[in-house]
Batch of 2 targets.
Target 1
Amino acid sequence: MEPGRGTQGRSTLGERYTVDGTRGESIESAGPKYRRRVLALGACLGLISVVNISMCCYYSYIGGACTNADITESQANIGIDTCKFNQTNSWQACLVESNAKGGKMNSSFATSMAFTGQQTLVYTWLAFAILFRSLCHYEWLLSTIAFMLYAVLGVVAYYSFNPFLPYPHQTAATVASLTAYIKPDMYDKTGYTFTPKEGDATFIFNDSCDEAYHWNLSFLAVQYTSVFIVVLLLVIAFSAERIRRRYPLAIQFPPLKGTNGPMGISFVVLCLYAVMVFSKADSAIINLAIMNDVNVEAATNEVRCC
């Protein structure tokens, strides 16, 4: 045994860590404990994912039940109804009627919510799987932490590069933009225009929209619960990495040369990417606020006029 080297610990990749007993427990002894904690959080993530998938499926059902939310007068007169929830007083109709011409949306809000939930599932389960794998190969922990930070950003504010459409009726909607949109007054003045075969058109308000708002709010809570679980996994990753650094590898390789330039460029690119993501989120929230104010004012003026 080399002087000052002490006993040897072995990782699953075969590299040996120096262990002298004076720096606390090693990552070799603490690894199983952290893996059990990750599995426990994985069980919680599984339960919340079942709820998430169920709600996404129901959002898809609502969005798919209406091939055309804006029924023309001629269709209404001859009894053609292309939307299961149109011209009803159910809370599902609120999600559909708000998409109609003159409403707050121009496409399927329910379908967009389903896409958002699926995006959350992808990022959270990737974070879980990669962390558990890193706790079997401890040298991966540092890069895993970087990915998990990106996973949190991805769940909350990820946008596809093309197209840039910040409205929540598009698949580019994010949890951040939906948070700005889902408010108690999001379905104010929501209803449908009923045109009988004889007589004038009548605008009928939907009085069941509070239930639709609470359903949307519950869905949003599910997304943030998933984010919270990823944050807890991130805490475990930081703790495991701190323990890993107590003991250096017994076999040390010389550092790579010429890495300062690429690392500096990578850091600049990362900062610019973060600025782009947050700028898009801010733009989406501003657009939603303007759109909401304009449509509420228009609907109010329409009611006063009629």
Note: The two ends are 93 Å apart (CA to CA).
Target 2
Amino acid sequence: MFDYFRRYQEIFFPLGLWLISLVILSTQAYSEGPSHPNPFFRAVTATVSYPQRGITYTARGIRGIWNNYIYLIQLREKNLKLQKELALLTMENFHLKELSHENERLRKLVGFKEKVLYNLVPAEVIAEDLSSQSKIITINKGSRDKVVQGMAAVTHEGLVGQVIDEPGASLTPFCASVLLIVDPTSRVAVMIQRTRARGIVKGTGSFRNLDLLYLEPHAYVEIGDVVITSGLGGVFPKGLMVGKVTEVKKDPSAINPDIKVKPGVDFTRQEEILLVVPLLEGD
């Protein structure tokens, strides 16, 4: 018998502890007077409570993590949705502003077209070569649109330049190159609108100023004088705005003073231009 209990002590020992605990609990439950837990009962209760608390806290933690995870996922989805809506609204806002600016530019171009006595063909700027060596733009109109070399390009602000056809800046059926008046190789026959004194405007390579050269002897020029095309040479029509005089430096040893002219056109923001088409008889 002793060997039998020894063989199965791993089963009988926990079972015995359980029975003893049950007897103690039953005795305390049916006692007539007030009772207090004995030390053994306290030890058993404390021992049993540890795994219970561990299971409870673990379950609570898992539920909390899961709930927070689901909440964060939903919050992230809402955040992404709001970001998408904000991006769409921002793009729409920029698009509406761009349409407003484009309409304003086109209204000015149309208003300018109504004032002049030339046939004007609108064109869009599709490329730029604004290096230190050259100032050339490319437009989306070419020979198939009756664009020819030497044709003047203008905006409502004034003279832009002329169409050229040369190596590296050729005239094709679908596009054309326009030499800006600020290019160092550009020359424009002009006159002072106030005094009618004639001269030549030369490009400096800078968008900020042009040089006014070869004025008539003793020509009187003031800061603020308007410079327009004279029509001489047959390239540019007469009366187109070129710019305003911003600087006059007189040198007693020089025949002509050093005169700077600010272009009327802002060449850094050109998106559309107008080509001046010569009028034919009967037009």
Note: The helical segments are 2-7, 9-29, 39-115.
